[in-house]
Amino acid sequence: MSRMYVKKRILKVCMVFSFLWFVWFFVYRDGLGDVADNNNIPKFQIEMEQSNKLGVNKLENHKQSKNLKQGPLQPQPLNLNMDNKARAAANTLPQQPREDAKHANPNQNADAKAEEIVPGIENIEKVDEEKQEEIPNGNVNINVGEDRKAMNKPKDIPTGPGELGEGVHIDVKSLTPEEKGRYDRGWKENAFNEYVSDMISLDRSIEDSRDPECKTMVYSDNLPDASVIVTFHNEAWSVLLRSVHSIINRTPPELLKEVILVDDFSDRPHLHAPLEEYMSRYEKVKIVRASKREGLIRTRLLGYDVANGTVLVFLDSHIECAEGWIQPLLDPIARDKTTSVTPVIGVIDFTTFRFKLAKAKDVQVGGFDWALTFNWHVIPESERARRNFKDYLVARSPTMAGGLFAISREYFTHLGTYDEGMNIWGAENLEISFRIWMCGGTLVTAPCSHVGHIFRKRSPYTWPGKNILLRNNLRLAEVWLDDFKTYYYSRISKQQMNETNYGDVSERKDLRKRLNCKSFAWFLKNVFPEMYVPGNSLASGEIRNKAKPVCLDGLDKIEADNHLKTYPCHQLGGNQFWLYMNDNSFRRDVVCFDYHTLKKEIQLMSCHGMHGNQEWEYREVST
Predict the structure, then answer these.
(1) Domain count, the chain
(2) Which of 103, 106, 151, 161 is the most exposed place for a label (fewest CB within 10 A)?
(3) Domain containing residue 510
(4) Dihedral of CA 277/280/282/288: which sign?
(5) Residue 519, class by beta-carbon neighbours within 10 Å (0-12 exposed, 13-18 middle, 19+ buried)?
């Protein structure tokens, strides 16, 4: 055998071994490595990766109810996308009077109609079948939104309807008859655009447009935990769930003791078993139910009775919390438990659901008028100076709107909670505002705390009882206004007073004495010196036309087109109540009759006390 032949055989053997080694190293070995690696991956992580491919986060807590089939670990902070559990719960949405409601998600025909139905919203992604699954009985489609790990990272922000707090505009003409029926029904039942709400993810992103100082604010190291109490009555499904999601998503877990949902005797089916089932996965969510219609005041007290947090945060059920919302509420209370704090209330447009945050320099504080109506005021110059003109610092506020505020649970108890003699809602916000100030506390607004609220033009609910607001106002006036109550009484008719039984207020008067509260004169002098006090007027009441039963009527708005009108006299005061003052001006609170020389009409403008176009001479004319 020649030497050349041996060399060739050796070379062939080497080539075969090289090929086998190559196959083992790059194919078989890598395959074993993958198997080994997967064996070391916890089961919940594999499930997470698989579910993320579907765009649905299925991570849930191990300690779920027995009815839940899935539920490995749930990360903190929670990012609650509406998952299969939500779809199952929503399946039991009421069939009557919604018998023609085939789909609750307006994105049903998103592929064909996205640009027609939602003009002005760019880059709306098509809805994946995995993300929008049909409920077994075909009644409802739910928009689960985009799956994302970190809400505040721009690269993770989705591009669906309503993201970054943008509004969604509906081309109503492009809706099918079925969709138009749901669109109209949502407006009728809720007085806001439920159709649009159902399009928006429950975890939608909100642009963090807080002032720079708010983002770098340093808070106390010992912030107390909070019980967030949310009362609701016949609330829309997606709006209520989005409220809860925003609370949990944007509250550090260590600061959130619990979320207490208090049902004020709702009769919509989706707020019973489906809501119980949906919320059962979240250990921090409790549901308390009233046995009869109680109204906001007593329903909030049901939540207070079961609350365990150091601080109580009262919220409405149609809100969204912005990033960093709770720390500015808790910090002043951590420093002084007699301080109560309100957030800046942003506007969620009731048509488009656009979320708009106010800048710190534009923040206003609460006031009131002598009809005991809450109103907003610019921050007085004296208060701005007290804060060294730093707009991001808390501002003292004479009153609060009442829907959203935080208060120490201990101090709330000490103050006597709410007046349980008041019914439903109305006047409780002014009553507790006066009580906080007059009984040793402080009320402030935190410009760095933002909570959006859906403001409606009408209430979709019915109320049991008669003259509810008048009754509550009379209780407030009798207990807290002292002699200044005469200014309120001048605004209402004697007939109204005689027909309204405001109940026994002796217990509330005893509470005021027990707390050693100051006088209302002290409040006006030290807390709200900007408040106009009428003093002695030459005349008061309605201004009636002698020829026919019409009276001068006008709103308390400082607007260019706000001019006096004539309406049939109703003898209820209100917009037909006027004062004729010693300086010959006609006024109500801060607005005066002002003659516009060009338009030759009487407008309502801010009172300036300079006579001129606001001076009127009254003459007796014999007929």
Answers:
(1) 2
(2) 151
(3) 156-531
(4) positive
(5) middle
